[in-house]
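A protein record pairs a chain with a discrete description of its three-dimensional fold. The shape at a given residue is found from the number at the same position. Here is what such a record looks like in full:
>
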Amino acid sequence: IFFRISFKAFSSFMLRRGVGASVRCFSSSSPLYKAVAVVLSGNGVYDGSEVHEASAVMVHLSRAKADVSCFAPRIPQMHVVDHSTGNPVEEETRDVLAESARIARGSISPLSDLDVSQFDAIIFPGGFGAAKNLCNFATQGSDMTVIPDVEKTIKDFHSAEKPIGLCCIAPVLVARLLPGVSITMGKETEQDGRFPFHEATAVVKEMGAHHVPKEINEVQVDAPNKVVTAPAFMCNTAVHEVYDNVGQMVKKVLELA
């Protein structure tokens, strides 16, 4: 009987649980810890957030006892990619917010609801979704534009002098929006295949950003702009090295908050 009752309650919860509730991903009861917004761009490296990077952000923030809320824009993805083949799936559409909710375990809100006054910092994990859904860098390169909700959010945090963390390909967002910002996306040459996306560094320099080459165990801190960036999976390396690199970024963001 206990099992049937427990399963019924759990099943009911699963059926009714929706997306968009203003719920913290995880929370500290102490006001001494920082409130951090995490902006996701879908679910999966080829068309959304890079899951390992997003999870690493969550774990390191949790360990620091941060009060974390997840957000994503309520827009269609640029396209849907079959991650087993790497090929786009024709005639299929997915919503960025709904897909991001998978990573956030359902605790997520539309990015348009984000109130900068309620947070001490913001972090953007990488993944191709940052370059396809949060902006159109993937198709437009140096002529890219950033979607309005993301542009407003980044400019609001920058104006409020609150730190912004970005990893992997996500730094292209601040490269476009914050003139002269200093960022890293790893090395500027292929390095025997270790940095397969190195050509993106030349593109952000075309947009006016100052790119600083960094290894996988380093981050770039632009103290005047309070922007912290990390190579993460711009480097073709082991997952644990990316996890540690994301942790370096999170630590610096919290120090600036």
In short: The first strand starts at residue 35 and ends at 39. Confidence is low (pLDDT under 50) at residues 1-7, 9-22. Residues 132 and 139 are 8 Å apart (CA to CA).
